[in-house]
Q: What sequence folds into this?
């Protein structure tokens, strides 16, 4: 089950400036509202998504050019 966090979840943390990372952080922040049995799935998905984000070269916007 893919949970899409609402905009309020984004306010729980400071923006990184990288939309894909901010989305993952919002999902992790929202895990507190999920049943304990779903926490591992959320953290595993977050780990995979963050690894993919780190593997991508920075975009021009992120480089400040």
A:
């Amino acid at each position: 089950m893919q949970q899409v966090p609402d905009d309020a979840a984004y306010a729980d943390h400071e923006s990184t400036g990288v939309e894909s990372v901010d989305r993952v952080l919002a999902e992790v922040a929202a895990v507190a509202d999920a049943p304990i049995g779903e926490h591992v799935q959320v953290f595993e998905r977050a780990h995979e998504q963050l690894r993919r984000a780190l593997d991508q070269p920075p975009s021009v916007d992120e480089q400040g050019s």
Remarks:
- Helices lie at 7-10, 19-30, 36-55, 60-63.
- The first helix runs from residue 7 to 10.
- The mean pLDDT is 79.
